Amino acid sequence: MSKIAVINPNMSAGFTKKVGDQAKKIVAPNTDIIALNPQFGPDSIEGYYDEAFASVGLLSVIRDLEAAPEQAVDPIGGYVVACFDDTGVDAARCLSSAPVLGLCEAALRMAAAVSSRFAIVTPMAVSVRPLEHLVAKYGAASQCVVRSAGVRTLDFEGANASAAYEALKKQAELCLTDDHAEAIVLGCAGMTDIADRLADELGVPIIDGVSAAVKMIEAMAMLGLRTSKAGAYANPPMKAYHGMFAGFAPQA
Amino acid sequence: MSKIAVINPNMSAGFTKKVGDQAKKIVAPNTDIIALNPQFGPDSIEGYYDEAFASVGLLSVIRDLEAAPEQAVDPIGGYVVACFDDTGVDAARCLSSAPVLGLCEAALRMAAAVSSRFAIVTPMAVSVRPLEHLVAKYGAASQCVVRSAGVRTLDFEGANASAAYEALKKQAELCLTDDHAEAIVLGCAGMTDIADRLADELGVPIIDGVSAAVKMIEAMAMLGLRTSKAGAYANPPMKAYHGMFAGFAPQA
Amino acid sequence: MSKIAVINPNMSAGFTKKVGDQAKKIVAPNTDIIALNPQFGPDSIEGYYDEAFASVGLLSVIRDLEAAPEQAVDPIGGYVVACFDDTGVDAARCLSSAPVLGLCEAALRMAAAVSSRFAIVTPMAVSVRPLEHLVAKYGAASQCVVRSAGVRTLDFEGANASAAYEALKKQAELCLTDDHAEAIVLGCAGMTDIADRLADELGVPIIDGVSAAVKMIEAMAMLGLRTSKAGAYANPPMKAYHGMFAGFAPQA
Amino acid sequence: MSKIAVINPNMSAGFTKKVGDQAKKIVAPNTDIIALNPQFGPDSIEGYYDEAFASVGLLSVIRDLEAAPEQAVDPIGGYVVACFDDTGVDAARCLSSAPVLGLCEAALRMAAAVSSRFAIVTPMAVSVRPLEHLVAKYGAASQCVVRSAGVRTLDFEGANASAAYEALKKQAELCLTDDHAEAIVLGCAGMTDIADRLADELGVPIIDGVSAAVKMIEAMAMLGLRTSKAGAYANPPMKAYHGMFAGFAPQA
Amino acid sequence: MSKIAVINPNMSAGFTKKVGDQAKKIVAPNTDIIALNPQFGPDSIEGYYDEAFASVGLLSVIRDLEAAPEQAVDPIGGYVVACFDDTGVDAARCLSSAPVLGLCEAALRMAAAVSSRFAIVTPMAVSVRPLEHLVAKYGAASQCVVRSAGVRTLDFEGANASAAYEALKKQAELCLTDDHAEAIVLGCAGMTDIADRLADELGVPIIDGVSAAVKMIEAMAMLGLRTSKAGAYANPPMKAYHGMFAGFAPQA
Amino acid sequence: MSKIAVINPNMSAGFTKKVGDQAKKIVAPNTDIIALNPQFGPDSIEGYYDEAFASVGLLSVIRDLEAAPEQAVDPIGGYVVACFDDTGVDAARCLSSAPVLGLCEAALRMAAAVSSRFAIVTPMAVSVRPLEHLVAKYGAASQCVVRSAGVRTLDFEGANASAAYEALKKQAELCLTDDHAEAIVLGCAGMTDIADRLADELGVPIIDGVSAAVKMIEAMAMLGLRTSKAGAYANPPMKAYHGMFAGFAPQA
């Protein structure tokens, strides 16, 4: 009865499948999941530079979905931006009336509901400061710290997976002992399996952003909530776009 | 498959039925809703004084539910505190491992996902400051204002209902024009019907706390999220309670 | 000429006597001290759960004092809530026109007047987060940290007293060296003797909440200051209360 | 038994007498009040420029009092800086071990204890921004606004007194109605008589800074509280001063 | 001796020339100004959606400049992003070691140096919330408000120019009278002529972002300041980019 | 064409020469630098007490410069207060229409433009808290920490210079590793030589306050920016000053 689009803003098809599968596993039986990624852009998102390009990719997917014929009969009820940097979420909210949610926003909301202080553990150091800006934007600066494990996202697959897991776990433990966190938010998409293992080993709630965002947007979609068009998320005013972005010009 | 307890901390049975009915209407088919209120306490909650008594009533209901035999076979997956003041939520989180959510917290989270600035409109002036404290606690102080309509909760039923609605609508309009709010949060439980009418008339998202909290706790329950026992929400340390509160003493 | 009620919200009569004695020692000769505790509730207050019950106990004592015949001829000029969690202070302010002050609020005010950065050291870890919320509510978040000694309140008496003191002192020393605190606030009531010893050994101001609150409320009472009834602390609106709380219903 | 020095940092002898008289009226019978002003500097303090000069005057008075022979036998237990801008308070705390309190700090503390939201009404517009900085420094920015009456301090005496009072009252009323203040702080020293009249006419608590500071410092002095010398308020390091400030060089 | 690149992230060549001319007029004689805009993207930037596309255009210009042969002999000393939304500034800082400055950041810094409270007046309402986020990011939330004139950027040229100016001036006047601003920041690029006229008519400092940013980056360039590569602005980690963004892949 | 006055508020002539020489080295060829210090006051500024006296010295120099006959033909375009505590800057802004800038403000602005997180390293511990207040005042509290090296300013010259440098460098390294700073601000004037050496050894931007302030005020002077006289920095209202400050009375 409800249709949720989970959009991975980077081009890793394996990752898109992973988050799509995870989404399908947790939604209600009558909720449809569409998992997509852009046709252009970076393979992963690590820092401000990658974000700039992935944002456009994200918008391209949403534009196409909104323009598709099936929107008329079976419209999308909500979008998840399947990236923990909440890449392009504000712009995406201008492009659709369906609610849009990033992983970080949703994860922080659920973490705040099950703990009074929590921490984000993210792979790369370069993401710490962008995530701290998100934490501040979402009003959680007084109860959330951000630590990095010093590994790359891809290290969690393949030969380095075990070492990457241990590096992440060590930082999570420091969050509990030194930062007095009571719950851990995984600051990266596609870590559901890690979430379960970490929860077992650490004995505190571990929040996975994909799960949090998919369930929260599903809840909002079922309530019929729509993005406000009365202010910052109004449809973009009509104007000309040129060159390779000509197809993105806002329509009247 | 999931069981959600919606607890009205005041003693108005009519109100309990109302929020229970609303909850049942919006949850998934296999989600059970239990709607209860305490056996003692105030008829409504208007300000800090009423809150103190309603908190104990809330805890009495949770205590009984947690101790009931059916917990062993079909445990409660989450609690909604059906009061916009989030009365007793912190204490309730100490008493159960199931997640606990108040209306204000849930409504602010959904409002922030569909608008960049929003407002709470609440009936009585005496609630403004307690709600502002909640807004600050939930990290939304820079994007949310609180206004009161100058009417009492009960005015929304019976002879004064029309005047009460107009007073509320007038404040909501001021939020849009003067405070640049893009969405309105109804700062009182049991206003679903008002929410729909106001959304039609104002053309912006109207967030009803009961709907927001029930759907968000349902989402969290389905994910199996539990309240952290590692810090502020640890089970209360065992000790003696006396007099009329003897039965509330925390057990080992 | 002035009458101050010092109310211990928990049921430890020994503690009530202790804070009453301490209060009598520091007030002006013509200030009367009444030290009381509720007839029901917990033996001590450690975290949100205990607070909920102790708040009602506190209100029961204030209600009885306000209704006593001697109020007409020799009214109470101010109330001290003798608990460092400032349990029930907001609700108590609604119940009386005499000013009400908790230990934490008073201690933070005096600490800020004799140091530019300070720390609260409290016995149990479970109190850290509630105290941090108070610190934020009182506007001291940028200059005050909270540490816990990992002991229980009762450990400061009897066989464990010496070890408890050393644990507390160790955390206080860390506040000075690592947090650059310039003064220490004792985050628990009834620690006057510890305050003196710690001041001698650490050489910085040690603020005892009971002393701070009793002297500050005495000052306010002498100035004739009364709680404002124009907003959040207005007398609770009249309504019915039921069951074991029937006697607490607000009167017209 | 206690000796309090009330120092007016400007040179108005009439004002010094006024605050001294007010102080004597409200302290305990065995508290001595010394009221002094510098031998040089401005006649009143209106804005940052006047403050710079008045600070040095303030320090000159404290220096002389600290060096006086009677300090050995009957030391000063606390200083009040009788100016609402809290002129020179931080520097004064470096010069003495006795606690030092400005009018603004004390008034905000008492206002916060009797209301949840309050306002400062000050004569001149030029003082608004310096006072807002103080409000932020004292952590009250979320609950206190500042308004000015558009009159000069001296207007409250002589032919303009009535018009000045009306201008002040009008702003105080706007604080109550538009800013939802529940109490009013008089943002200027020497307004005790106005405080009483305004309290009668507005029906909310009116906080006079002189009264608040004198009683709070008396309370701190009686508790034996001393300014911490462990950090920002350490005695100034020894060094040479030259020219007309040679006599102010910090001693070893 | 110094070379500054002023990059207009939108495609209006007229606007690019305008800001380039303005920049040339205010820099030192031996400072070279390069004024450029992207070869693709929107014609103007109004809100989050346009920003996402303009960011990529901005990065394309910087990439080409950094790769140009003349960098080896006469490197660019600093970049100005000639847009008041500071579009893409964080990503641009990852792409070059030369400092990068947006109009909003520079204008707020200069406004704070000549006034204690100021306001941004921007054409469209849709920009208010993004600008408020920038104001908060730059730490000026307590001293800066944002108002919009309700006109579009292009209205300032052609037939509507006079009405647009009057609308802007009216909001600027409200900032002075109602928000107590002491200076006005023009929240849009390319308004130098308006700045001069407004300064004359209002009698307070008017800050033009282009002028502020060009002079501040020139100052930084002359000091040899470089963007730190130790954290959030590190060069983007090497990875593959695909499709129309293939040419933007970060190199080792 | 532009004339900048660099005023050292303390009486060290050697230091005045040093900052003057540094200023001359970095300004444009046609910018005149006047470097002066007061004729009275302390030899250095370490903490709140010294600041109070140095502020008056600073104002005496500005007063004389503003009254000098050459102002009529070749007015000063901007003032730098060559002290990292920004001593007296607010008062100085009331005394002149030319913009006034302290070292801390300018250094923080440039640090924020080249890094997302930075740190101030200052010689003495007594300066940490005053600098933290400045950091908060300038809105950088969420991105800037302050550490002290535990040495005195004068230690950087003569026999202790090497040890002082090492102590400072050690703290700067802790800022990078433990506080995740990406750039270092030298929290003391007259450290240009140290800045260069530290930049070489640490590989991150090192911001020297003198350089930052001189270049930024030069930029503002060239733009013709003047301090707003519409609010907190209005010319001080006319009044009598007495005794040794008689010559500082504000004129009509």
Structure description:
Six copies of one chain form a homohexamer. By secondary structure, chain A is α/β, with parallel strands linked by helices. Chain A has two domains: 2-102 and 211-248, Rossmann fold, CATH 3.40.50.12500; 104-209, Rossmann fold, CATH 3.40.50.12500. Chain A contains nine helices and ten strands. In chain A, the strands form two sheets. Chain A has a four-stranded parallel beta sheet with strand order 2-1-4-5, with helices on both faces. In chain A, strands 7-6-8-9 form a four-stranded parallel beta sheet, with helices on both faces. In chain A, helix 1 (13-26) crosses helix 9, helix 2 runs parallel beside helix 4 and helix 5 (103-114) packs across helix 9 (209-223). The longest helix of chain A is centred in the N-terminal third of the chain and has 20 residues, at 48-67. Chains in contact: A-B, A-C, A-E, A-F, B-C, B-D, B-E, C-D, C-F, D-E, D-F, E-F. Chains A and E meet through strand 3, helix 2, helix 4, helix 6 and strand 10 of A and strand 3, helix 2, helix 4, helix 6 and strand 10 of E.
